[in-house]
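Worked example

This section walks through a single chain of length 106. The input is the sequence exactly as stored; nothing has been trimmed or padded.
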Amino acid sequence: MKLYKLIRLEKIVEKILQKEPLAREDDCYLILKVVQKLFPEDYSKPFYKVMTEAKYKGISFESITRARRKVQKKHPELVHAETEEARQAEQIEYIEYANEKHIPGY
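Given that input, the structure is written out below as tokens.
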């Protein structure tokens, strides 16, 4: 993604996090709101269409969540504490999984 697109995305994410508390705790909701802002014509399309067309429009859902993390690092007041705790716990589980320290047989 080009730098100006990332900067624009960060500003959009910040505004959404400020106005929409649910977006602080639910990445799917945040992504929905970003798509609605960037591509209002896609908002009423079926989910599968939005997903299949996303890469052609230059939108990356991973970039949206990265922008959220960056904004929340700059503005801790936009962090939902319970959600952040859950994300950190999941991150530990993913690290253990990646290091193959998971339960045998699964």
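What to look for: The chain has one domain: 3-79.
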